[in-house]
Amino acid sequence: MPGKVGKPLKVRSKKELQSLIDAYFAANSSLSLSGLCLALGLAHRRSLNEYEQNAEYGNIIKRARLKVEEYYEKLACTNHSAAGPIFILKNMGWSDRQEIEHSGQLTNIIRYPYKRPGPIGDVNTAVGSDS
Are 116 and 125 in contact (CB under 8 A)? Predict the structure, then answer.
């Protein structure tokens, strides 16, 4: 077939792919993308990406990937720390810094608590004194 490049996919049908994915999720309480790849008989995660790009299998892989992401999100939020949810939100495009735009001219007026010294030896009128 013109336009097809690379090795043929190992899974022969959407039903077979969904069956392998369902079996992985049913058999494992801890989920991971690498575990999903192994359950599908893939040698590396790039192959999972190839399945995801395939018009026939793409949505099935996307849903499986979301289920793994959901597992990590729940795991991160059950820990009584803000680090997990912050990490997840940052990966979803959120930011923890403020960006403020300034317009107009900036004028700095610096004032020091300074008194002009009096004659030499006059300690009551030296810099920093209150009198």
Answer: yes
Residue 116 lies in a domain: no
Tokens representing 129 are: 């004194």
**Domain limits at 73?**
14-91
| C-alpha span between 32 and 69 (Å, rounded) | 8
- Sequence-separated (6 or more) residues with CB below 8 Å from residue 61: 17, 48, 51, 52
- Specify the number of domains making up the chain: 1
| Tens digit of each residue's pLDDT (9 = 90 or more) over 26-81 | 999 999 999 999 999 998 889 999 999 999 999 999 999 999 988 888 888 887 78
Could you tell me the two tokens for 63? Answer: 């849903």
pTM of model > 0.85: no
Number of Cβ within 10 Å of residue 36's Cβ equals 22
C-alpha–C-alpha distance, residues 36 and 1, integer Å: 29
The one-letter amino acid code at 61 reads I
Asked, for residue 45, whether it belongs to a domain, the answer is yes
Residue 84 lies in a domain: yes
